[in-house]
């Protein structure tokens, strides 16, 4: 299905027929944009709807002879959380915003921040560190166009991961055998702790917690508050696995190439600006989330340093394991993981454990 619509076609043909005698005709281009997550609880979607869309519309109108109109479909209205990459690839969406965590095979290596948890708690630092890896290893950007017929416009992410549970706990041993939901790439964090990981998605979380499908969620404050997970699982423990810049905003290559060059340039520039503001947007969302959870009556506690160190130590081999897995898939896993660990270290952060890649 071709969802790229070029307006005023008849006028454009007429202008071509009379040539230079007629002034240039402004065209209106309609693009479908969407995400599997809803606008509001998912900050990267909120920034897509409230920053990227209006900024593109404004700049195209002010700086070119054309106009852009967006048909917006968030919350799975056009494509679900695990369908957006493919929806952009086949043109159902012209532009998609999605978490690469729901593409564990196709975008396995792009989830590299998950493979080195307990990093810096600041989202702006995390976005900058991840961007440094993309710049150092072009394969990460090139895979979108080479294999999935789309172009990466900008990165976004999730704020700092913690753990919400139905019952209180204090030690890693308390989590033995407890079923906990997660998005996918972070599920090994639970396996190393002896918990039972359950693959799930944010839209399914509330009902699953309420009905006992699992008894906890690895989740950042903004979404734990936004999706009201604190109602069935009121105990929120601050652990600090780190924020994760694993969300992508991409555009279908054919859709981009049909646009005038000046419009293409604006979309790329606004995509870069979307990424540039993502870290501070996520930091603000985390602060609101933590305040909101306390005001909503959730029990918010901080995990002891010794328990956190014990959990981190259990994951010391995880980055190397994932790097070698990616290498085996024909991806530059060792290069990417080394680049990421180096970028974080260069930022002045001290890892709680000595992650090393063979």
TrEMBL record:
Residues 1-26 form the signal peptide. InterPro entries: DctP_fam, TRAP_DctP_sf. The keyword Transport applies. It is found in: Periplasm. It holds the Pfam family DctP. It comes from the Bacteria. GO terms for biological process: transmembrane transport. GO terms for cellular component: periplasmic space. Keywords: Periplasm, Signal, Transport. Its main location: periplasm. The keyword Membrane does not apply. Belongs to the bacterial solute-binding protein 7 family. PANTHER family: C4-DICARBOXYLATE-BINDING PROTEIN DCTB, PTHR33376. This is Bacterial extracellular solute-binding protein, family 7.
